[in-house]
Amino acid sequence: MDFIWNKMATRIIYTADIYAGMELAESVKNLYGQMLLSAGTMLTESHISLFKTWGIEAVVINSDEPEVPADLTSALDFETMTILKKRMNWTPMNDQEMDLFNLAVQTISKQK
Amino acid sequence: MDFSEKIRSSVNNLPTLPTIYSQLSQAIEDPLATNEKIAKIISADQTSAFKVLKVANSPLYGLHGKIDSISQALIYLGHNEVKNIVFSLSIMKMFSKDKNVRGLRPVDLWAHSIGVGVITRNIGLAIGEKNVENYFLAGVFHDIGKIIFLEFAVKEYQKVMELVIEKKCQIKDAEKEVFGIDHATAGQILADKWRIPQYIQDIIYNHHMGQKTKETNTLLASVHLGNIVAHILGFGFSGDNLIPQPNPIIWGVLKLRRGTILSLKDKFIDDYSHTIKMMLM
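The joint structure predicted for all components is written out below.
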């Protein structure tokens, strides 16, 4: 895994859902591992359009109320999220659906 | 003639169910028929008999290599389950293996269907269902309508596959656009012609929704979930790789605990890899 973050205080978010004022919890890197923006950066509108140009699909931000349940985040990385986003267009709503989500994450991570 | 009529008339021209299956059904319904008599019917077709033995010994039934005769298979697996295996094998034999469209081959579709069968049966066992003998068959047959499309409208099905890629939509929506009906309806036409038992017809027609009218049952819910899990695990290929969204109604009947599906992952994979070899090779 590329990163492990504090489960209680961060969450992964699609670029489309970012708004100015959010704080990056993890550095944003491109496919070659080059650092594009460092952790702790306060995001602005121009960052958001840059993400789109760079093809960044999702980032990790600091959050007081994580939307993604804690056990989900442990296995996630950008590549997995990118593949998963293309294949799954619904959000898990209960424990059993979280199981399906985690099963998909495990399967995709293994295939990479 | 529109496509749905074309499919209907092509299905009507299909041969009736294989004799081995109807003889077997009759014998099983006859209270006086002995195991030996039933075993004899199956053994008359050596290829089927051989495959039945292989499937009966696969990890799916947990009897690893203990069964060396059809009579034993009938005792350990039960008449209906053996009949179901014969049924699945004879139907697979009836359809072409070479009606490929770009990106979808019948073998992958059968592999997906067998995968759904294996998962559905394991879900049935996990929820403590006492009678799971129809679970495998229901899973295997849920997508039979796609086989019908490939068999009778392979050129048009190419368009369906192109639409799926172009619009990133589910295959059933692309089918409706091209044929006016989806594979659930096409499958129902076949099920009707062959008078396949009503519970299988319900599965074929309702597997996407996971419910019939406003209700569901454990078998339908298990197939609905089995299909989703087979998509997630990449068992075979059914034409699109979108992971379908579960209908929340299924959770109420399945009453699965958190973690159950994850804990069954290895069993799903093991049963699948063995069973496809037994049935497809």
